[in-house]
Specification:
The protein has helices spanning about 5-25, 135-145, 250-255, 305-315, and strands at about 90, 100-105, 115-120, 125-130, 150-160, 160-170, 185, 190-195, 200-205, 215, 235-240, 260-270, 270-280, 285-290, 295-305, 320. By secondary structure, the protein is an alpha+beta fold.
Length: about 325
């Protein structure tokens, strides 16, 4: 045998060590085939931001709008009592809103975002703001008219009292000179009947001594005393004069207080009558004195305007009834 060189002997020693090391290495894992089906993606929930929200301020996710269920009228302490009563237009409505009555004015601080509804003594003034979609101009129109008005809406705060309004209207019932007086008041005890406009409020106190029969286009418990008369408010007063005070027209005429601007004598049916145009407390009013059997009937119309035409129509409908 030929002797091995040093290089050969070195290789002979290294080969078994290399083979042993290779056998100790774990085999590489076989890759599992990946499915070709697409992986579903989940869209992120959008954040709703109102147009008037500050940039970067998140707004809570919107919830489906619900139609409010009808609610029974209930009192709102400090704002309005329910039911309102026969002598006021203020009331709670079946849908949970309320109706308040008063005069609209600008706030004392000059704020343009709301108006103030000034109400009768004992009822707090209320801030009035328009509901969404209800133009502020409609409220300002009632303000400019400067007449008694009612507003309907939902209370949003009691401190300060605030009403979100979706409807407003003049509180005074209209008088149309071209329409007939379709309602009739009859007093069988005194023996007369008289017509008055539909929708007006009749208050009969004639059963009381010195009692007055009043017919007004507004409800008495909503009236707010003012220095300047409200041109929209009209009231007819029918006053049976007690015979002990004046039994004839002449006796009553002698007791009339105020400046007489004009006088006219005529007959109402079979009854003698005198019409007086008067200036009383710096206001013009027309009076009618009618001689009924045994007593005098005084009829007067109080209004800043339309008093003459309305009294004409009252005279046309005044007639006797069988006692």
């Amino acid at each position: 045998m030929c002797p091995l060189s040093k290089r050969a002997r070195l290789l002979a020693l290294l080969i078994p060590l290399v083979l042993s090391a290779c056998n100790s290495i774990a085999p590489a894992p076989v890759a599992t085939p990946v499915s070709s089906a697409p992986i579903p993606t989940i869209a992120p929930t959008p954040t709703i931001v109102p147009s008037d929200a500050p940039t970067g301020t998140p707004f809570p996710s919107a919830t489906p709008a619900r139609t409010p269920a009808a609610r029974q009228p209930t009192s709102i302490p400090g704002l309005v009592a329910c039911p309102g009563g026969a002598d006021t237009d203020e009331d709670c409505l079946p849908d949970g809103s309320v109706r308040l009555v008063g005069y609209l004015s600008m706030p004392s601080d000059g704020n343009q975002s709301y108006l103030v509804l000034n109400r009768r003594d004992g009822r707090p003034a209320v801030r009035v703001i328009p509901a969404e979609g209800h133009p502020m101009d409609k409220l300002r129109e009632s303000l400019d008219n400067n007449t008694l008005a009612w507003v309907e809406g939902w209370g949003t705060s009691l401190n300060p009292p605030t009403l979100m309004v979706n409807r407003e209207q003049a509180a005074a019932r209209p008088f149309n000179p071209s329409l007939p007086l379709t309602e009739v008041y009859t007093n069988s005890k005194l023996g007369f009947a008289v017509g008055f406009p539909a929708g007006w409020i009749l208050t009969d106190n004639s059963a009381m001594t010195g009692g007055i029969i009043s017919i007004a286009n507004y409800k008495s418990n909503d009236l707010i005393p003012r220095k300047e008369p409200d041109p929209a408010l009209i009231k007819i007063e029918i006053i049976p004069i007690m015979p002990s005070q004046a039994a004839t027209i002449d006796q009553m005429r002698a007791q009339t207080i105020g400046q007489v601007l004009g006088e006219q004598s005529f007959a109402v049916g079979k009854w003698p009558a005198v019409r007086l145009s008067m200036n009383i407390d710096m206001r013009r009013t027309d009076l009618l004195l009618v001689q009924l059997p045994g007593h005098v009937l005084l009829v007067q119309v109080w209004s800043a305007q339309q008093y003459s035409t309305l009294l004409d129509k009252v005279i046309e409908t005044l007639r006797p009834v069988q006692l």
